[in-house]
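Re: [ENG-882] Designed sequences occasionally contain unexpected residues at chain ends

Forwarding the minimal case from QA. C-alpha cells:
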C-alpha cells in the first residue's frame, strides 16, 4: 500500500479519518479493501477485534513510510556502489511565493542491465529570504554530509 500510494503520488491521509467518515483517506480506504481479500490482514486492521490498536494510525503510517524509505535508500546505495560510474546533481528551484527547494539527483549505469538509472533523492526546503550566494553555498556541503551519511 505504501509503495502504491507513493508511486501514484496520492495523499495517505484524508481530511476526516473519523469512524463515521465516508472517506477516511487513501491509506485507510485501501487497507479496508485489502482486508476484504485477506482474513489475517482483516484481523489486524478491524477495530472490532481490538478497541485499542488497529494498525492504521498516523504514527503507524509514518513508521511504514520511514521504513520503506530506508529500504529504498539502501537499495539505491547498493546499486551506486556496484555501478561502474555515477554522477550526482544538485538543483534548486524557487516558486512564485519565494519558496526554495533543493533536489539531489543520482545517475548511474546499472551494472546488470547496462542502462542509465536516475533517482531523485530528496526535496529540502532551503528558503532563506535574506541569504546571499555565499550563505546558500555553505548549505550544500552540510546537505551532502547528511545525504552521504545516509548512503554509507
Amino acid at each position: 500500500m505504501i509503495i502504491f500510494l507513493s508511486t501514484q503520488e496520492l495523499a495517505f491521509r484524508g481530511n476526516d479519518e473519523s469512524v463515521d467518515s465516508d472517506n477516511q483517506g487513501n491509506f485507510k480506504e485501501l487497507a479496508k479493501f485489502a482486508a476484504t481479500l485477506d482474513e489475517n490482514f482483516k484481523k489486524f486492521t478491524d477495530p472490532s477485534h481490538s478497541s485499542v490498536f488497529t494498525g492504521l494510525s498516523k504514527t503507524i503510517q509514518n513508521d511504514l513510510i520511514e521504513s520503506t524509505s530506508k529500504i529504498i535508500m539502501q537499495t539505491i546505495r547498493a546499486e551506486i556502489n556496484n555501478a561502474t560510474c555515477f554522477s550526482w546533481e544538485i538543483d534548486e528551484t524557487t516558486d512564485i511565493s519565494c519558496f526554495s527547494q533543493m533536489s539531489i539527483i543520482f545517475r548511474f549505469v546499472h551494472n546488470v542491465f547496462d542502462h542509465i538509472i536516475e533517482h531523485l533523492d530528496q526535496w529540502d526546503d532551503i528558503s532563506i529570504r535574506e541569504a546571499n550566494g555565499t550563505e546558500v553555498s555553505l548549505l550544500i556541503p552540510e546537505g551532502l554530509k547528511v545525504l552521504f551519511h545516509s548512503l554509507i
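QA comment: On inspection the terminal residues look reasonable. The two ends are 28 Å apart (CA to CA). Proposing we downgrade this to a documentation issue.
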